[in-house]
Amino acid sequence: IVYPEAIANAGTDAVICVTDDTNFRFGADSVSLPSTGIWHQLPGGPRVTFTDATSDTSGIRGLAVTELDTLYFEWNVTNGICDTVKDTVRLIVYPEASSRAGNDRTLCMTDSSTYRLGARSILDNETGTWSVIASPGVGIVSPNDSNSAVTGLTPGTYQFVWAVTNGICLSVADTMEVIMVPEPIVEAGDNDTLCAIGPTTYTLLALPILGTDTGEWTNGIANPTAADFSDSSLFNPTVTNLRFGTYEFIWTVTNGVCDPVSDTVYIQIDSISDAVAGPDASICENLGGTTTHTFQAQALTGTRDTGTWSLLVPDNSIMFSDSNDPLATVSNLVPNDYTFIWTVSNGQCVSEYDTVVISVYEQSQADAGKDTAFCEPMDTYELRAGDNHSKNYHNYTWTYNVALSRSSVIPAIAFDTAVRTSVTGLTVGRHVFTLTVDNGVCNAVTDNVTIEVYAKPIVSFNVNDQVVCIGETSNFVNTSTAIDSSNSFIIGYDWSFGDGSTSNSANPTYQYADEGVYDVSLIAQSDKGCYDTLTETAVISVNPLPVAAFDITPLKSKPGEQTIITDLSIGASTYLYDLGNGFSTDPAPIYNYFDTGTYTVIQYVMNEFGCRDSTSMTVMVQDGQNIYVPNAFTPNGDGDNDFFRPVFLSVDSEKYSFMIFNRWGELLFQTNDVLDAWDGRHNGEEVPIDAYVYRISYKEKNGFGRYTKEGHVNVIR
Questions:
Q1: Which end of the chain is more exposed for a tag (fewer CB within 10 A), N or C?
Q2: What is the pTM of this model?
């Protein structure tokens, strides 16, 4: 038995509203026996149940979505023998639309231009639309905007409908109500003026209020007195307890929705104002310009009152900025006492008067005198203040300014409140005295005077060599200093060496020409002109010099001959001869030179004071022996110039040595026989052509001289 392959067709995809789940049926192709089919929900989306999972037209139950969603279902067909065949159908489910138009509102007409509807936001696949019920002239700016602006609102009640749809489910609508309330109308009445003596009453008359509006009268915060209202909620109450001055009454109307609206009425209660010229004043003159004063008279309260300033004693030079201003400024004042009159009148009441006294004080001036400076000692000085005042009410005070001074000692001021006074105890340093002048009104003024007491230089010096010989150098080391608060420094020196010689150097050197004992003086001068002197007595001792002199016999000799030295010095006690190749302390030595050459003989002499002198002579030691050494030879066996040796005129054969070396220092030939010669061989082998070193040591035959000669010889073949 052969079964055909099963066929599965789940039908077409569908789009439904979530509320249509009870009406929805799948549309799969029906199957014939022995085949059977069954529905399965694939993963994803909310789970549902099938009304009959084996029916090709099964329905579903329990469908619930809150947003657009897609479900997938699979139709499985089998005949029990062949493989199961599957097909899938897609179901797009739209959630039910939702509409919330927002809360009902009661608004003031002042908010109409800024009012916006406020429906709840909708989903991306939803569309919302505003409409207004039976309200011609009202416009919705953006009907599909949940927060659309609204135009054309007037006082009244409006119903706005917010309808939402997603194109699949049924449209849903919600309604909200807006009540527009007109702004209250307020008018407090006309301003008014009345004259009265003592407390009075007045009836206010505002515009009557409308409908459910309520009103309330209040006092302005600057009213002269707190007026009493017969009934503050009436538009026309009577107010009592009114006195002189201007009253501000505020009429405020509200309807419970709009902001309260107010209007103000001013009621002037007129009478003559009190004349209060203000407090007396003491002022200081203005040295840099015009001296002025601003009055502080009490302001006038009557609307017809006029105030006028005048002088008790007329002075045409005095100027008023505005003679009718309680706060007028008066100028061109000079040190004096002025009486000004403030007169208040209104043409009906008796004028009122008050006076004020303005005292103009002369500006204090402080002149402590000119700064000065002295060299110490300066113990007492007179302070003199300049006095250029025309008035005698100025006070003078002298103080020592520690902060600006530079002194460890505070000097004493004899009379610190006198124009002239003396100070004592002025030590080295900077002394600053402050003069303070005041008159009790003007600002105190000060001036400083500086008294600088300069220190004399502190003179001192050292002599490095106090005991010297004639012609030796004495080093004078200046150790003088200048120490004071003004940072003085030494600018000049004057040395006197006790023998009539002087120097202006800071640290001079000097050589005394004569023996003796000398006093030395030093005068040091500072940059401030202060100076001092120091004399050291018997500070320098100058001792005499010995005189070096000698003779040599002979001045020319041969090696080994005697050289006789004769002392010719004067005043010497100690001798030293430098003989050129040795030394001797003998006053008259006899010496033998064994080597030729020119020798300088120096005599050093010293006396008992340690003073020294020296002189020198030259000795020549000449050698009579001659030696000849060839510089090349040709040891080739031709009988001509085959051997190399030195040639002497006279030589001691017992004191002779002759050696040959190669360039690496290897000894090739050696002999003590003056007749022996080198044949150009070493160990029987010919040496190569090259330059070779020779060394010859010998003694003359009839003399004392010993010599060594070195050089090079070339081997040529």
A1: N
A2: 0.39
